[in-house]
Design a protein that fits this description.
globular; 6 helices; two-stranded antiparallel sheet; 101 residues
Length: 101
């Protein structure tokens, strides 16, 4: 096992110990990197597979897993790769939290 994988495993275990969501101004926020990691795991794909799909190296994928937010372009490419609408997480959140007027 290489040193990057060991470091990544330590960080992932730490992130897993936290909630996958955090709060800002009393509102729960989505940790999109964790959502992507969970979906990749659920589908049984490897980090190498996703890095090939996105045209980057594995280290970039591990970094995505740790990020609370990513660019919409990267999220869109990830949606296509995993055939999952991650934007729906945000839409549902808005629907739940926007005041009814």
């Amino acid at each position: 096992m290489n040193i990057w994988r060991l470091k990544y495993d330590l960080i992932v275990n730490f992130v897993k110990s936290l909630n996958k969501h955090h709060e800002i101004d009393g509102k729960t926020c989505i940790h999109i990197g964790e959502e992507i990691r969970l979906e990749l795991e659920k589908q049984g794909h490897s980090v190498q597979w996703l890095s090939n799909q996105l045209g980057c190296n594995r280290t970039n994928i591990y970094n995505i897993f740790l990020r609370e937010n990513i660019s919409t372009d990267l999220l869109m490419r990830t949606c296509f790769a995993l055939k999952k609408d991650f934007f729906a997480l945000y839409s549902a959140k808005l629907t739940d939290e926007l005041p009814n007027e």
